[in-house]
Protein backbone atom coordinates (compact mmCIF):
# COMPACT_ATOMS: atom_id res chain seq x y z
CA UNK A 1 0.00 0.00 0.00
CA UNK A 2 1.37 3.39 -0.99
CA UNK A 3 -0.12 6.61 0.37
CA UNK A 4 0.61 10.28 -0.28
CA UNK A 5 -0.15 13.03 2.23
CA UNK A 6 -0.11 16.65 1.10
CA UNK A 7 -0.82 20.00 2.66
CA UNK A 8 0.59 23.45 3.18
CA UNK A 9 3.26 24.61 5.60
CA UNK A 10 2.46 23.73 9.20
CA UNK A 11 -0.79 22.06 8.16
CA UNK A 12 -0.16 18.90 10.20
CA UNK A 13 0.71 16.69 7.25
CA UNK A 14 3.78 15.08 8.85
CA UNK A 15 1.93 14.35 12.08
CA UNK A 16 -0.93 12.79 10.14
CA UNK A 17 1.48 10.77 7.98
CA UNK A 18 3.17 9.48 11.13
CA UNK A 19 -0.23 8.39 12.46
CA UNK A 20 -0.56 6.06 9.45
CA UNK A 21 2.53 4.15 10.59
CA UNK A 22 1.46 1.22 12.77
CA UNK A 23 4.74 -0.60 13.46
CA UNK A 24 8.52 -0.46 13.17
CA UNK A 25 9.43 1.92 10.39
CA UNK A 26 12.14 3.34 8.20
CA UNK A 27 12.12 7.13 8.14
CA UNK A 28 13.62 8.44 4.90
CA UNK A 29 14.87 11.92 5.72
CA UNK A 30 15.37 14.25 2.78
CA UNK A 31 16.12 17.49 4.64
CA UNK A 32 19.69 18.61 5.08
CA UNK A 33 20.64 20.23 8.37
CA UNK A 34 22.21 23.45 7.14
CA UNK A 35 21.34 26.04 9.81
CA UNK A 36 19.94 26.56 13.32
CA UNK A 37 16.33 26.81 12.14
CA UNK A 38 16.54 23.51 10.24
CA UNK A 39 18.25 21.92 13.23
CA UNK A 40 15.29 22.90 15.43
CA UNK A 41 12.78 21.59 12.86
CA UNK A 42 14.58 18.26 12.63
CA UNK A 43 14.81 17.92 16.42
CA UNK A 44 11.07 18.62 16.74
CA UNK A 45 10.24 15.88 14.22
CA UNK A 46 12.64 13.42 15.87
CA UNK A 47 11.19 14.12 19.33
CA UNK A 48 7.64 13.56 18.09
CA UNK A 49 8.61 10.27 16.44
CA UNK A 50 10.54 9.15 19.54
CA UNK A 51 7.45 9.77 21.66
CA UNK A 52 5.19 7.78 19.32
CA UNK A 53 6.06 4.37 20.74
CA UNK A 54 7.16 3.18 17.31
CA UNK A 55 10.73 2.09 16.61
CA UNK A 56 12.05 4.39 13.85
CA UNK A 57 15.22 3.84 11.85
CA UNK A 58 16.28 7.03 10.10
CA UNK A 59 17.93 6.80 6.69
CA UNK A 60 19.26 9.95 5.09
CA UNK A 61 18.86 9.15 1.45
CA UNK A 62 18.47 11.29 -1.65
CA UNK A 63 18.89 8.65 -4.34
CA UNK A 64 19.26 4.92 -4.95
CA UNK A 65 16.08 4.03 -3.10
CA UNK A 66 16.15 0.58 -4.66
CA UNK A 67 19.19 -0.14 -2.45
CA UNK A 68 17.23 0.34 0.78
CA UNK A 69 16.98 -2.69 3.02
CA UNK A 70 15.37 -3.63 6.27
CA UNK A 71 12.73 -5.79 7.88
CA UNK A 72 10.49 -2.86 8.81
CA UNK A 73 7.02 -3.08 7.25
CA UNK A 74 6.43 0.70 7.21
CA UNK A 75 8.34 3.45 5.45
CA UNK A 76 7.81 7.19 5.84
CA UNK A 77 9.32 9.43 3.15
CA UNK A 78 9.39 13.02 4.42
CA UNK A 79 9.33 14.95 2.22
CA UNK A 80 8.86 14.84 -1.50
CA UNK A 81 8.99 18.65 -1.66
CA UNK A 82 12.42 18.79 -0.06
CA UNK A 83 13.58 15.87 -2.23
CA UNK A 84 12.52 17.73 -5.40
CA UNK A 85 14.15 20.98 -4.28
CA UNK A 86 17.41 19.17 -3.43
CA UNK A 87 17.59 17.69 -6.91
CA UNK A 88 16.41 20.90 -8.54
CA UNK A 89 19.14 22.98 -6.91
CA UNK A 90 21.84 20.39 -7.51
CA UNK A 91 20.94 20.27 -11.22
CA UNK A 92 19.69 23.78 -11.99
CA UNK A 93 21.38 26.01 -9.41
CA UNK A 94 22.28 28.65 -11.98
CA UNK A 95 20.52 27.24 -15.01
CA UNK A 96 16.75 27.53 -15.22
CA UNK A 97 16.61 26.69 -18.90
CA UNK A 98 13.86 24.41 -20.17
CA UNK A 99 16.48 21.73 -20.88
CA UNK A 100 17.84 21.84 -17.33
CA UNK A 101 14.35 21.74 -15.83
CA UNK A 102 13.42 18.75 -18.00
CA UNK A 103 16.60 16.96 -16.88
CA UNK A 104 15.60 17.60 -13.26
CA UNK A 105 12.13 16.14 -13.85
CA UNK A 106 13.67 13.03 -15.43
CA UNK A 107 16.02 12.48 -12.45
CA UNK A 108 13.17 12.96 -9.96
CA UNK A 109 10.89 10.56 -11.87
CA UNK A 110 13.62 7.92 -12.13
CA UNK A 111 14.45 8.04 -8.42
CA UNK A 112 10.80 8.03 -7.34
CA UNK A 113 10.06 5.10 -9.60
CA UNK A 114 12.86 3.21 -7.83
CA UNK A 115 11.27 4.01 -4.46
CA UNK A 116 7.76 2.99 -5.52
CA UNK A 117 9.00 -0.21 -7.17
CA UNK A 118 11.12 -1.09 -4.12
CA UNK A 119 8.13 -0.58 -1.80
CA UNK A 120 5.85 -2.76 -3.91
CA UNK A 121 8.44 -5.49 -4.51
CA UNK A 122 9.23 -5.67 -0.79
CA UNK A 123 5.61 -5.43 0.40
CA UNK A 124 6.21 -2.19 2.30
CA UNK A 125 3.57 0.26 3.51
CA UNK A 126 5.01 3.49 2.09
CA UNK A 127 3.71 6.90 3.18
CA UNK A 128 4.98 9.90 1.21
CA UNK A 129 4.70 13.42 2.64
CA UNK A 130 4.66 16.27 0.13
CA UNK A 131 3.99 19.97 -0.01
CA UNK A 132 1.02 21.63 -1.65
CA UNK A 133 2.39 24.91 -3.02
CA UNK A 134 0.05 25.60 -5.93
CA UNK A 135 -2.90 27.02 -4.01
CA UNK A 136 -1.33 30.35 -3.23
CA UNK A 137 -0.31 33.45 -5.12
CA UNK A 138 1.92 33.18 -8.18
CA UNK A 139 5.51 33.43 -6.91
CA UNK A 140 7.43 36.56 -7.83
CA UNK A 141 10.74 34.91 -8.72
CA UNK A 142 11.41 32.55 -11.59
CA UNK A 143 13.12 29.99 -9.36
CA UNK A 144 10.06 29.85 -7.08
CA UNK A 145 7.73 29.47 -10.08
CA UNK A 146 9.90 26.68 -11.49
CA UNK A 147 9.84 24.89 -8.12
CA UNK A 148 6.07 25.31 -7.78
CA UNK A 149 5.56 23.86 -11.25
CA UNK A 150 7.99 20.98 -10.64
CA UNK A 151 6.46 19.90 -7.34
CA UNK A 152 2.95 20.29 -8.74
CA UNK A 153 3.78 18.06 -11.70
CA UNK A 154 5.54 15.44 -9.57
CA UNK A 155 2.78 15.44 -6.91
CA UNK A 156 0.18 14.77 -9.60
CA UNK A 157 2.20 11.92 -11.10
CA UNK A 158 2.98 10.28 -7.76
CA UNK A 159 -0.61 10.61 -6.51
CA UNK A 160 -1.83 8.79 -9.62
CA UNK A 161 0.40 5.83 -8.66
CA UNK A 162 -0.65 5.76 -4.99
CA UNK A 163 -3.38 3.64 -3.48
CA UNK A 164 -4.46 6.38 -1.08
CA UNK A 165 -4.15 10.17 -1.10
CA UNK A 166 -4.84 12.62 1.71
CA UNK A 167 -5.00 16.40 1.97
CA UNK A 168 -4.31 18.01 5.36
CA UNK A 169 -5.39 21.55 6.18
CA UNK A 170 -5.46 23.17 9.64
CA UNK A 171 -4.67 19.81 11.21
CA UNK A 172 -7.66 18.11 9.59
CA UNK A 173 -7.24 15.39 7.01
CA UNK A 174 -9.44 14.59 4.05
CA UNK A 175 -9.06 11.34 2.13
CA UNK A 176 -9.04 12.09 -1.59
CA UNK A 177 -8.71 8.52 -2.83
Automatic annotation (TrEMBL):
Its EC number is 2.7.1.156, 2.7.7.62. Belongs to the CobU/CobP family. GO terms for molecular function: adenosylcobinamide kinase activity; ATP binding; cobinamide phosphate guanylyltransferase activity; GTP binding. This is Adenosylcobinamide kinase. Pfam families: CobU. InterPro entries: CobU/CobP, P-loop_NTPase. GO terms for biological process: cobalamin biosynthetic process. It catalyses: adenosylcob(III)inamide + GTP = adenosylcob(III)inamide phosphate + GDP + H(+); adenosylcob(III)inamide phosphate + GTP + H(+) = adenosylcob(III)inamide-GDP + diphosphate; adenosylcob(III)inamide + ATP = adenosylcob(III)inamide phosphate + ADP + H(+). Keywords: ATP-binding, Cobalamin biosynthesis, GTP-binding, Kinase, Nucleotide-binding, Nucleotidyltransferase, Transferase. Gene3D superfamilies: P-loop containing nucleotide triphosphate hydrolases. Catalyzes ATP-dependent phosphorylation of adenosylcobinamide and addition of GMP to adenosylcobinamide phosphate. The active site is at 45 (gmp-histidine intermediate). GTP binds at residues 7-14, 29-31, 60, 78. It is an enzyme of class 2 (transferase). Pathway: Cofactor biosynthesis; adenosylcobalamin biosynthesis; adenosylcobalamin from cob(II)yrinate a,c-diamide: step 6/7; Cofactor biosynthesis; adenosylcobalamin biosynthesis; adenosylcobalamin from cob(II)yrinate a,c-diamide: step 5/7.
